[in-house]
């Protein structure tokens, strides 16, 4: 099945849908479209995968030397305030 | 985003307990540093801004009203500090930041199965993580800021709008484009990877 003009309308909603930001009726219409349109279903799955890997794939780390310098900087400057 | 309630620690800081402030720094420094690294894409500048952010937070803590969470308030200081620095040093990177707007027409949205069929352990391998970082860093600053705050830091749309001082509608619009730009890049990468391995056989 190829993408249609309606696909554009639905694909514009996918990010909001992932965030739970679209209304119940629109939600049902979108879900119905995704069930019947394989290209849009792939776009949706790939968007969901993207959000998931961004969430898990960016490390939360701070180098030890940056941590040490921050502590020293704040001890020095916060005493003056 | 739900974090532990910091109000008791903040009250101690306001009572003059510097150790309590260091506890707040310890709790948030890695997340703030990650956010700043993503915003300015320069380790040395991010470190300067990290120091400035916490110093500004210390000086301004008396004005923290508690109407938002402490983390939202702190990320707002960090974001403003980074944007002020970028406007001063690289104004073009902020002022002409809508470049992505015309670059992501729906017609360019591609639908390929390779990306969604790639196992998570490959996407989250060292190489996979590098590609995620590169895709995020390729976004204009206001877009990557919104994406990082929502999808990496886990703030709600309302909190992101408070942090970046934009409407929720503007945040949603930027987030939609940012997510799709990252999606296109990752999908292109895994399509090419699949093609290269097929050719090698």
Notes on the protein architecture:
The complex is a heterodimer of chains A (81) and B (201). Chain A is built from five helices and no strands. Chain A is mainly alpha-helical and 81 residues long. With 201 residues, chain B is mainly alpha-helical. Helices cover 74% and strands 0% of the residues of chain B. In chain B, α3 packs across α4 (70-89) and α8 crosses α11. Chain B is elongated. The mean pLDDT of chain B is 88. The A-B interface holds A 3, 7-8, 11-12, 14-16, 19, 21, 38-40, 42-43, 45-47, 49-51, 53-62, 66-67, 69-71, 73-75, 77-78, 81 and B 18, 21-22, 25, 29-31, 33-34, 38, 47, 50-51, 54-55, 58-59, 106, 109, 111-113, 115-116, 120, 123-124, 128-129, 132-133, 136, 147-148, 150-152, 154, 157, 172, 175-176, 179-180, 182-183, 186-187.
Radius of gyration of chain A: 22 Å
In terms of quaternary structure, the protein is heterodimer
Q: Which spans of chain B of ≥5 residues are poorly predicted at pLDDT below 50?
A: none
Total helix count of chain A?
5
Tally the helices of chain B.
11
Mean pLDDT of chain B: 88
Number of strands of chain B: 0
Shape label of chain A: elongated
Strand content of chain A: under 5%
**Major sheet of chain A, described briefly?**
none
Helix content of chain B: over 70%
Order of helices and strands of chain B: HHHHHHHHHHH
- Largest sheet descriptor of chain B: none
Percent strand of chain B equals under 5%
Strand tally of chain A is: 0
* Rg of chain B (C-alpha, Å): 19 Å
> End-to-end span of chain B in angstroms?
47 Å
Q: What would you call the structural class of chain A?
A: mainly alpha
Descriptive labels:
heterodimer, A: 81 residues, mainly alpha, 5 helices, B: 201 residues, 11 helices, 74% helix
In short:
Chain A has 81 residues and is an all-alpha fold. Chain A has helices at residues 5-11, 14-18, 24-36, 38-57, 64-78.
């Amino acid at each position: 099945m190829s993408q249609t003009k309606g696909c554009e309308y639905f694909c514009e909603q996918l990010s909001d849908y992932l965030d739970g930001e679209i209304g119940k009726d629109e939600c049902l219409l979108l879900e119905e479209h995704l069930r019947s349109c394989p290209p849009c279903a792939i776009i949706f799955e790939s968007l969901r995968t993207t959000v998931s890997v961004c969430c898990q794939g960016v490390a939360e780390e701070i180098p030890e030397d940056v941590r040490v310098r921050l502590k020293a900087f704040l001890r020095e400057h916060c005493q003056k305030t | 985003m739900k974090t532990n309630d910091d109000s008791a620690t903040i009250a101690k800081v306001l009572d003059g307990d510097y150790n309590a402030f260091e506890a707040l720094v310890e709790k948030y420094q890695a997340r703030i540093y990650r956010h700043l690294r993503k915003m300015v894409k320069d380790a040395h500048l991010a470190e300067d801004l990290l120091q400035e952010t916490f110093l500004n937070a210390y000086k301004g803590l008396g004005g923290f009203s508690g109407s938002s969470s402490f983390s939202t308030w702190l990320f707002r200081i960090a974001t403003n500090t980074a944007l002020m620095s970028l406007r001063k040093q690289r104004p073009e990177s902020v002022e002409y930041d809508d470049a992505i707007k015309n670059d992501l027409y729906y017609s360019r949205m591609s639908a390929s199965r390779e990306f969604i069929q790639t196992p998570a352990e490959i996407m989250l391998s060292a190489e996979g993580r590098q590609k995620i970082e590169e895709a995020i860093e390729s976004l204009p600053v206001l877009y990557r800021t919104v994406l990082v705050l929502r999808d990496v830091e886990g703030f709600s749309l309302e909190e992101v709008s408070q942090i970046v001082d934009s409407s929720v509608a503007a945040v949603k619009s930027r987030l939609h484009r940012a997510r799709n730009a990252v999606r296109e890049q990752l999908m292109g990468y895994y399509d090419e990877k699949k093609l290269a391995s097929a050719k090698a056989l």
